[in-house]
Specification:
Oligomer: single chain
Helix content: 40-55%
Largest sheet: 7 strands, mixed
Shape: globular
Number of domains: 1
Distance between the termini: 39 Å
Mean pLDDT: 93
Strand content: 15-25%
Low-confidence stretches: none
Structural class: alpha/beta
Amino acid sequence: MLQSLAIKLLVQLFRLLPFQGLHRLSSLLSFCLRNVISYRKKVVVSNLKNALPEKSVPEIQLTEKLFYRHFTDILLESLKGLTLPKAELQRRFRYNNPDIFLPSFKNNQSAILLGSHFGNWEWGVLSIPLMVQHKVLGVYKPLSNKHLDAHLNSLRKQWGLHLTDMAHTGRAIVQYKNEPTIFVFIADQTPIDVRNAHWLEFLHQDTPFLHGADKLARQTGYPVFYCEIIRTGRGFYEVNFTQLCEANQPLAEGEITRQYAALLEATIRKSPADWLWSHRRWKRKR
């Protein structure tokens, strides 16, 4: 309960804090996490070295430093985004080709959208309902604190987002089968059950990927899209969508996962500091 109250207070404080002050605070927090607390520093450095062996030691050090600034920016921007006015959110988080979903909508066709922990994904799931005609359903893993989870979700839903627990994805598919809906998955999470995971070489390492979106695409025949978030400045982002398959396209098992992994790796290589390197992505083996 105390944790929930603390987050509610923080959300209101960040509503009043201008972005210039927010990013100054982020720079200070970044320095403390990296140089004082050493928050997951061994994990970050190990991940960078293993994933980007072609980079020199100075390049790895610079990427690590930029990652911590990105990480704290995302933490604070996510809190600020929960109370950001619609016009300001749209000014800072721009969609370049949202019309890519129009053919599906006109055909009363739902779609699957695969995102990642890259750029400001929180602003992405918050704002996409403003840019498409589909209903938008985010598939997520609930927090253990039910009060906090309910409060954050109520703020995330303010611009039309719907949410469902990962465990209830199948139920949601049935519920919205007659409404054109975009099902959003953050698909670079580490699967708990590695036996059913799709294993691929990703960033030079044997990597398990969640199989759910791939299976869902084959079962439903929904078209699948990839979401790329590009940082254009501090507190500013652009989004590009890429279609991975058309509606009712025959798909081999794992084909969508392979396409997603290839596009995500290319995205990471363009701006490596903007991915979530503090996550222990490679902790499980086949």
